[in-house]
Amino acid sequence: MMQISDSYNQKNSLFNAMNRFIGAVNNMDQTVMVPSLLRDVPLDENGDVKAPRPANDTTPAAAAHCTTCFHQDADMYSSYVLLKSIRNDIEWGVLQGDGRGRDRAGVTEVSRVEAEEDDLEKQFRYHLNGLHTVLSKLTHKANMLTNRYKEEIGCGN
């Protein structure tokens, strides 16, 4: 019989990935004392500040500079707000009344049909792996944003 403490020590457990993400966002939230300083400061996937590009620049070269987890033109402030929102969804649950559920209505119908046809264990492992991967990337983004904020205000590491 598996004990609860065994899963606590598993580095790759979903529970620990969620805790790492929540901890990183809490650290970010405590570090960022003036979120408005994050406005218009672009953040690329390497944590470097990138030059703002014109809104009408849709060339493939410009698209190559987009971040992995966020929108192309996202600045540090919008990333900060998004990370806090995701943390709140994890901690408090996703409200069924918000607009996100209605946007996915067609996807839900397709998912139900696939769920009946495919092996549930296989689906579970697929989604668990995907969730773990996304949480790891979001944790990295929260840590990167925290470090960039420290650089911007001059306290660095």
What does this structure look like?
This protein has helices spanning 4-8, 14-31, 60-63, 76-92, 99-103, 105-117, 120-153. It is mostly helical and 157 residues long. Residues 47-69 and 101-105 have low confidence and may be disordered. Helices cover 61% and strands 0% of the residues.
Label this structure with key terms.
157 residues, mainly alpha
Topology:
Blueprint: H1 4-8, H2 14-31, H3 60-63, H4 76-92, H5 99-103, H6 105-117, H7 120-153
Helix pairs in contact: 2-4, 2-7, 4-7
Summary?
This protein is an all-alpha fold and 157 residues long. It has helices spanning 4-8, 14-31, 60-63, 76-92, 99-103, 105-117, 120-153.
Question: Could you list the spans in which at least 5 consecutive residues all have pLDDT below 50?
Answer: 47-69, 101-105
Secondary-structure-based class equals mainly alpha
User: How many whole angstroms does the radius of gyration measure?
Assistant: 19 Å
Helix fraction, binned, reads: 55-70%
Helical stretch tally: 7
Q: Which strand-content bin applies to the residues? A: under 5%
The main pleated sheet reads as: none
State the total count of DSSP E strands: 0
Q: On the 0-100 scale, what is the average pLDDT? A: 73
Morphology call: elongated
Distance between the termini: 44 Å
Which H/E pattern describes the elements? HHHHHHH
